[in-house]
Amino acid sequence: MLTKVTLNKELEAIAERLWPGVKSPCTFRPLIAKENGHFSSDFCVSLSSEVNLSPGIIAENLLLNLSSFEELSLKRDGNFLVLEFLPNYFDEAAFKRIIELPTVESSSIILPTYLSCSSPMAFVRVASLAFEQYLVMRSQGIHCSLYVGERKLPEGGVLEAYRHLLLEHRETEATPASDAVSYLLNAIAAAGNDQVFVWLASTSLPKDCFQEVFKKAIYKQSKRILRTPDPNWSSGSESFIAPAYITQASDDDLWSLMLYLGSPLQADELDLFVPRFFERENLVWFLKSLVERIRKIEVEPLKSEKEGLCSACDATILPRLGLYRAQYPFLLSRVCTHAEVELFNDALRQIALSLSVSLNQPALRQALRANIEHSGAEIIYSLSRIFSVIMSLNQAESLFK
């Protein structure tokens, strides 16, 4: 029987019944290109600090009291709950019926100024994630403010602000840590009742300064989230693109650079010429090339009917693409509610790679050319529309003024 209560709410109700007074919310995170499961939840980990039990014991108690869902299986995987949908339910509507999408009404994203104890690479990579989160949230119609230090950026011209930041941090004196703490606390206070996201490189502040910010403004504040990417991701080679290129870069060039700096690559794996080149590692170009490839396939002459409309490869490729399409709203949601920009960028690349493989299948190309109602063609068109939106996210700030 299809459920009328989301899985999130049922698990929260079970937890409240078993351990009255618990307050941890239950959320699910999409798993992209994973062998085991489609969503995971750290609900048991969050509850463990409230009820003084191990996450494993909590998971066993929750699963024991959970009603059955014919659409899915839910099991424990270490300290996490892992959710796997049956292939018949690889559909956005089915996913939303099971998993509640949280909403965000107003947010502030706060990034410290360039700090004396932070490396240039760490600063620009974390800044790229903060700026991308801002653009994604604006594209979703969420009222969002972006602070660099205690300075609130104007709503228009965010890419120019990004360009200025890339140039400025190389030319101006770094901010002392003690001043940075004051700037951060002032910006958090100015955000008021907004959902607040604070982005910090792991080496941005000395330990005592970091603890001051955390204790005064983050600790036990449900509407304040601190994001500190892994040190190996943010620190490494200090080479950088020449200032002349940044000065002359178009909006699309800056958007390509922002997504590349926010990619899952470790800092020492970066090739900072990639955003200028037409290759797959340049995600904006890769998405554009796939959209253009689909457009060209549509206008190609039809080939022999011997190609057929069935392919053995469809059995694995189409369910995977259907899964990605259904997961996409949840990936967007995690950017807006948990600042998981790295997950979003990694997922976009995985989806693009799978779509590229699918376009090599004769059956799907034939369906696109013939404008035939084919499940694979419909999924491909949906993903193409998603990619078109991503390609134009650098214009998102102008959509909701």
TrEMBL record:
It comes from the Bacteria. This is Uncharacterized protein. It comes from SAR324 cluster bacterium.
